[in-house]
């Protein structure tokens, strides 16, 4: 990620993308330039908990970095690298290969903690300083107005030529969604220091509770809440804000965690600041394979989130697909093999794979809903090679 502090490496990324399009475009029909760049810049260049581990106090304790400037430089170069790759695909390959290209953001839903104007604006700022930070430039050619007003000269500017290339710079929005939070204003009200509360983060604070009542179904820990309604709300929000550009739910799921952290259910966090990517329960040290395969909570999580997604679709959201995270237990970014998101269990010693109950449930879910479709709709989806 250090390369995204360097201007000319955008061209290197476009060259790399060109090789991928040329080599695999006859088989790959859905291209993603970056996965969760909003998290990459926050944790790679602000808190320093992700590579390249750059930050400055009070956001983190790193050898190098500037937490108040580098996240915006890195994000700016990632956006322009994305557009460079999209330009290559659209001008050289898309017409013949008939594929689509987009970007994936980690999309949490932020609910205003009150009906006050200040808290409603804070919830919008939370989105502006996360997903809209990337989507507004890529689709509209400009940074969110909230970012422009608060950051001023800290925010890099696009040239006239870059703005022209940025217009409608994707074919679909990839949505990774797991959880939701309440948000309160920190611009006109005093807040304890924490994620989001500083000027360069947008002056907002998140909480999983409102007046002591959790936002969703609580688990053993007070800050772990299941809020399926957030799926409907974030998809509907994106529908209205970006004129119903096609969306694909690229990640949604829950995880089990190896017995080296807590003895209770807990929420997966990317860093000590508690930005969450999913929820799950901890495997006991003496867990048997049979216990690991019976993942009823994952089934409940998926069932309720798919129902919420169905609500958004019935209201007109242009959702083209849903991908559960994940097919297999895998190497999970900075958590390695200590967490399990898979619908299939993997024995990390023997690599033996076994379907969990959730895999069978999901297979039956897809089969049942395909039966509900008319022949005309099914033929259309088959012709379009729909990922759903």
Automatic annotation (TrEMBL):
GO terms for biological process: carbohydrate metabolic process. It holds the Pfam family Glyco_hydro_1. InterPro entries: GH (IPR017853), Glyco_hydro_1 (IPR001360). GO terms for molecular function: beta-glucosidase activity. Signal peptide: none annotated. Coiled coil: none annotated. SUPFAM superfamilies: (Trans)glycosidases (SSF51445). It comes from the Eukaryota. PANTHER family: BETA-GLUCOSIDASE 46-LIKE ISOFORM X1, GLYCOSYL HYDROLASE. Belongs to the glycosyl hydrolase 1 family. This is Beta-glucosidase 46. It comes from Gossypium australe.
